[in-house]
Specification:
This protein is an alpha/beta fold. It has 27 helices and 18 strands. Strands 3, 4, 5, 8, 13, 16, 17 and 18 form an 8-stranded mixed beta sheet that branches. Strands 1, 2, 9, 10, 11 and 12 form a 6-stranded antiparallel beta sheet that branches. It has a two-stranded antiparallel sheet with strand order 6-7.
Length: 734
């Protein structure tokens, strides 16, 4: 049903919207509504008309994240977008802003150096942002007015499964936990009154936090409950929502992403009086009356501002009559419109109010999301877009959050890039001890503007304002995302001239050694690493690869360590190549190609016994994959399905199967000769054992020639197929 038709039939009375849904109940277990009045007899209703923040959409969202856990970011079929705000570049930019804020606090005498400054990350998700932030933070050095040790990072989420996933990351996050820089906590912004740290047992609650707190979150506001409003011809109205599916009797919500994809949304509207919000509605007002009162002030600002602009533009306003019918004339043109539609991020605001309560009114916020930061983007009648991508999201109205902070005497600064779908914002509330309660209740007269100099971030925290301005307007997530997208497209265009070593290393340094950039540029890097170059260029590339290896944090299926191992092998850095291949085996599946390349790198280091063991494992894994492939083929034949079906772990080709056998024969022979030489030496009474071969029979880098009867070829045995002195280890699979 068209939105305009629903609007024409909706009552303009102050009473609640109609209770019937646009979807027909499929069975008695579904909703008890008047089936004769409904428009879609084949649809199953999930709920009647409700305000958006009370819709079952949010129940579906919560179940989805709770059931998927860490798989929400790492599974190819259920991946939630994360790269644009979780990369090393953006994390380092945020870290610089937090450092600037701590310097401002110290300069103003507002920082107790004996107590930590708690940084709370809402919706820690995969953990990659926290990892990159903490790695950048660890690079900062203490200086007058700043000490990195002041900060305590706390990752939070509403589901325990994500906390368990972070705790299992011992190689990465575990290092920062052991150093005392990181802790975990469960936090539900709609209900939590305190934060209990899982590892230290510290409880953060109002009155117990000595310093102002910092909150950070990316792509969180657009996934939290929100309400939808519009100002039509001077009248404030609320958009109501109903949901349903096209399946029979599917009234029980599910956390399966496929269920969400089937859910359809219908919209209607009802007139609203300003004192309804938080007073009549049980949503925000019952638990957070302060948050609701300030949201009411923001609603009044929108109503007054848009009504005044409509009046000034010659729009005829609706009569102030509760019995009047809703009417919709065609909008005259793009500039003169009779309706402004906007979202109130009530779930995000309530979460911020909870944090502000714990921080006793002193809170700095850094956040990024897809959304709007200007009130003039709201003109036009269009219901909110529910974007589905495994989960779902709405546009974040950062303008409303800015007004909410300003209404409490706070400050706001947001990016203002009209062409960008990603906006970043900084919000700040610093309360004096003697006026926190009073100022929190004070509501300024409308209109008020988040862009006013009186509410500027620069005036409250100069270094933070200056640093964040650079992040928001010049070198932020939006710019980084598009530049790295250009490099990705470059990889696919063979006609592009090759990159220079200096250009590529500069790009990697600018990106803060983001490992995913390595994966995007892997073909360029492999070509470059196999070229003849001078020692300076070789060192530049080796440094790039080793720094990216140290930064690696697995989220998706991109095996970055494997590619780094290939590059480091080409550059002659066999020790780090071994580290890279071992990391690949630890984070991803055992693959014959990875084992083969690890064995070759171990051989180059003179570690014959380790190389032999690795190649024996490569042969075993290869044989297991062959058997699995045969079994899968037989199963497909029995089922008579398409033989091109993609069975996990059985379709990837291994192009060097015979090569493994060649290496095994060679290594067994060399290790046997080594054992014979050691035995003969030990039989002589005057023999002195070599320290490089005793106990383990393993030599260090460059010791292979001394440990074997005769020197082996540079990169691979002569009998090995197509092995050149600088051979690139083969790709895992085409």
């Amino acid at each position: 049903m068209a939105v305009e038709q629903k609007a024409a039939n909706a009552s303009a009375a102050v009473s609640r919207a109609p209770t019937e849904s646009v979807y027909r109940p499929a069975c008695p277990a579904c909703l008890n509504v008047d089936v004769m009045a409904l428009q879609h007899p084949r649809k199953c209703a999930l709920e009647p008309w409700v305000v958006l923040s009370q819709s079952k959409l949010w129940t579906i969202q919560t179940k989805l994240y709770d059931e998927l856990g860490g798989a929400a970011w790492g599974n190819a079929s259920t991946t939630v977008p994360f790269f644009v705000t979780c990369n090393a570049f953006v994390a380092k930019s945020y870290a610089r802003s937090v450092r600037a804020f701590l310097r401002d606090l110290h300069a103003a005498g507002r920082l107790d150096e004996a107590e930590p400054v708690y940084l709370i990350e809402l919706g820690g998700g995969s953990g990659k942002f926290a990892w990159n932030f903490l790695e950048s933070w660890a690079e900062f050095r203490a200086s007058p007015g700043f000490d990195p040790a002041w900060l305590k990072y706390v990752m939070t989420d509403f589901t325990e499964s994500n906390l368990d996933n972070w705790a299992a990351r011992t190689r990465t996050l575990g290092r920062h936990v052991a150093a005392g820089r990181l802790d975990f906590a469960r936090f539900d912004g709609t209900s939590s009154k305190e934060i209990v740290l899982r590892n230290s047992g510290v409880v953060l609650r109002r009155g117990d936090v000595a310093n102002p707190m910092v909150a950070m979150f990316n792509y969180v506001i657009d996934t939290l409950p929100a309400d939808a409003f519009q100002v039509h011809r001077g009248r404030l109205q609320e958009l109501m929502v109903t949901t349903g599916t096209d399946r029979t009797c599917e009234h029980e919500v599910s956390g399966d992403p496929r269920f969400l994809m089937r859910v359809e949304v219908g919209w209607n509207m009802t007139d609203l009086q300003l004192n309804d919000y938080g007073l009549v509605y049980p949503r925000a007002g019952a638990a957070h009356p302060i948050a609701a009162r300030h949201m009411n002030a923001v609603l009044k600002w929108y109503t007054d501002t848009y009504t005044r602009q409509m009046r000034n533009s010659g729009i005829q306003l609706l009569e102030n009559d509760a019995t009047a019918r809703v009417s919709r004339d065609k909008l005259p043109d793009d500039k003169v419109q009779a309706t402004a539609t906007f979202l109130m991020p009530s779930g995000g605001i309530v979460a911020l109010q909870s944090l502000m309560d714990i921080a006793d009114g002193s809170l700095m916020v850094l956040t990024g999301d897809k959304g709007t930061t200007r009130g003039d983007f709201n003109w036009g009648f269009q219901p909110p877009t529910v974007a589905k991508h495994t989960s779902f999201s709405l546009m974040a109205n950062y303008h409303a959050i800015a007004l909410w902070f300003v209404s409490q005497g706070g400050a706001a600064s947001c990016s203002n890039l009209a062409a960008s779908s990603l906006q970043v914002c900084a919000f700040l509330s610093l309360k004096a001890t003697n006026d926190r309660a009073a100022r929190l209740e004070a509501l300024p007269d409308a209109p008020f503007d988040s862009d006013s100099p009186a509410h500027s971030l620069f005036a409250r925290s100069p270094l933070l304002g200056e640093t964040f301005d650079d992040l928001a307007m010049w070198t932020g997530p939006h710019e980084y995302f598009h530049i790295q997208s250009l490099t990705r497209r470059r990889e696919k265009q063979a006609s592009m001239p090759p990159m220079s070593v200096a250009g590529l290393t500069s790009l990697m340094r600018w990106s803060a050694d983001e490992p995913d950039m390595i994966f995007k540029l892997k073909n360029e890097l492999l070509r470059m690493s196999s070229m003849k170059m001078n020692s300076r260029e070789n060192k530049l590339l080796r440094d790039v690869c080793t720094r990216a290896l140290a930064r690696f944090y697995r989220v998706d299926r991109n095996d970055v360590p494997y590619e780094l191992g290939r590059m480091l092998y080409n550059l002659g850095d066999y020790a780090h190549a071994v580290q890279a291949f071992e990391l690949s085996l630890g984070e991803f599946e055992e693959h014959p190609s990875t084992l083969r390349n690890l064995g070759i790198a171990q051989y180059e280091l003179g570690r014959m016994r380790a190389a032999l063991s690795t190649f024996e494992r490569a042969a075993s894994v290869r044989d297991e994959r062959r058997a699995a492939k045969v079994a899968a083929g037989q199963a497909r034949q029995k089922r008579r399905v398409n033989t091109e079906a993609n069975e996990e772990g059985t379709k990837e080709a291994f192009e060097h199967e015979d090569d493994v056998d060649v290496w095994l024969r060679k290594l067994r022979k060399e290790v046997g000769e080594l054992d014979g030489a050691v035995s003969a030496s030990a039989a002589r009474p005057d023999a002195v054992a070599s320290p490089s071969t005793t106990a383990t029979g393993e030599g260090g880098a460059g010791s292979r020639a001394a440990a074997t009867p005769k020197a082996a070829p540079k990169a691979a045995p002569t009998a090995a197929p197509t092995a050149a002195p600088k051979a690139t280890p083969p790709p895992r699979a085409a």
